[in-house]
Amino acid sequence: MFIVITIVGIIYGGVLYVFGNxxxxxxxxKEKYSEIYYVNMFPDNSKSKNYKVKxxxxxxxxxxxxxFTINKAYFSNGGYITFxxxxxxxxxxxxxxxxxxxxxGRDWKIELTxxxxxx
Length: 119
Prior knowledge:
By secondary structure, the chain is of the alpha+beta class. It has one domain. It has 1 helix and 6 strands; from the N terminus they run H-E-E-E-E-E-E. It has a 6-stranded antiparallel sheet, with no helix packed on it. A hairpin with a 7-residue loop joins strand 1 and strand 2. The longest helix is centred in the N-terminal third of the chain and has 18 residues. The chain is elongated and about 55 Å long. The N and C termini lie far apart (44 Å).
């Protein structure tokens, strides 16, 4: 039985690597990828003011332990914020705010959505 489960796991992992998608939460989600998703950004100490912006998200980890890294957020006016000094991976639940500091030292709360930016 162990051998059968191992073989199925290897096949599933291989299929995801080759044919997996980049939709957060999908059963067929790749283990590691970079994608542009919408996030809600709240300036520090603001509970109501927020921006829905495009963000470059790096996703890694296994099926049960997803890790996300936000590298850059793009504002609609052409500006952007980088988060390269925050290259740690963090656990995030969809729809929950996390605290993050941008490269200029400003604090934000960011809420990841499952809405992928379509090309």
